[in-house]
UniProtKB/TrEMBL annotation, chains A, B:
Signal peptide: none
Residue ranges annotated for the HTH tetR-type domain, each copy included: 6-66
Keyword field contains DNA-binding: yes
PROSITE patterns noted in UniProt: HTH_TETR_2
Organism: Streptomyces macrosporus
Protein name, per record: TetR/AcrR family transcriptional regulator
InterPro entries: Homeodomain-like_sf, HTH-type_TetR-like_transc_reg, HTH_TetR
One Pfam family it belongs to: TetR_N
Keyword set, alphabetical order: DNA-binding
Keyword Coiled coil: no
SUPFAM superfamilies: Homeodomain-like
Length: 185, 185
DNA sequence: GAGCTAAGCGGACCGTGGTCCGTATGGCTT
DNA sequence: AAGCCATACGGACCACGGTCCGCTTAGCTC
């Protein structure tokens, strides 16, 4: 990547972050970001592909931390704790991660529906599948993982907390319950 | 509703159905429907609110039939069979319903993500909640229903069958497994 | 440092969903 | 039959995501 491209990339990310901070995620239009970074609109698209790509780039740092925490962090989230315990912690961590970035993720989702195969989800599926197997769950663990991870969804989280008035605590308890039901033999 | 409005409504629905049949769901743009019905674009929006509304109207008949089948149809889907058996049948019926209208539903979904509260989903949640209680499942049945219904999602179905190459049979088996795990005590 | 070329840039342009508002008319009242 | 007005119409208009392509420039080569 050429120097000017790298510079523009960081300028765009900074401008985008500033926009979100000052005016909310809804004002994060591609044109506004371009203008705020004093750059052409085409440049934004070349750097990030599309709106979802830009948002993913914005969340990248947080996503890495989150991912590391369950892949190699301390127990009970990371390795060292029994698999079911890790699964419980994973769901809670994920719900909180989603809640923290809810605003941004929701404005990205329209595109992401089609992108149910985007990288973060893949990682979650793989992780849950591994934990289920480790826990000795038999049957179609891959599909079971898909079902479980579907519960850990921003849109669902948003719907249940905002529209249906459920607390995050309740969702977390729901996850514990779900894991317990699925893993007991 | 005035007579001309009613006439335009049916003309629009016919035009939309024709468009989908002839050129696929992707060509179902609001402007194309308006043109095909020889009507102004504004009229389409007034009648159906937005694109999702139009698509829901298009699927309304099928949705009613589907809904009736599990609310008052013959067992094991309808009343008469034991609740767990009905739950199993419900999932299979829903997966097939979704698969049948996949194309149309997918092009509507972008909007529908925000609309996790749209009527059909409500009905499904209510139904599953009732069956879980009837089956003697204790705990947060409402939330458990949300988790189960999240598995019955067009976008997920599409992803798993097209992108991951799973068969519909496998998804149905996965539902049976899920129900078994959740309801056993 | 001149010349070359791939990489990058930017903004005009397009399609689509959705809004708005001035105009037309169905159909009720008298 | 005439008058009235709520209802409905239609298309110009807007915002935004995304594409395209002719122009610019970083930075390597000689």
């Amino acid at each position: 990547m050429r120097a000017d491209a790298a510079r523009n990339r960081t300028r765009l990310l900074e401008a985008a972050a500033r926009l979100v901070a000052e005016r909310g995620a809804e004002c994060l239009t591609m044109e506004a970001v371009a203008a705020a970074a004093s750059v052409g609109k085409g440049t934004v698209f070349r750097r990030f592909g599309d709106r979802t790509g830009l948002i993913m780039a914005l969340l990248d740092r947080s996503e890495r931390l989150y991912q590391e925490s369950f892949l190699s962090g301390p127990p009970p989230l990371g390795p060292g704790a029994p698999p079911v315990r890790r699964l419980e912690a994973f769901g809670v961590a994920t719900l909180r991660h989603l809640a923290a970035h809810r605003e941004l993720l929701l404005t990205a989702e329209p595109e992401a529906c089609r992108r149910l195969d985007f990288a973060p989800r893949h990682a979650r599926i793989a992780h849950v599948t591994a934990l289920l197997r480790e826990a000795g769950v038999d049957g179609d663990t891959e599909l079971l993982a898909e079902a479980l991870v579907s519960y850990l969804d921003v849109a669902l989280l948003h719907h249940l907390t905002e529209r249906r008035g459920m607390s995050l605590d309740r969702l977390e308890a729901g996850w514990h319950d779900l894991v317990a039901r699925v893993t007991r033999d």
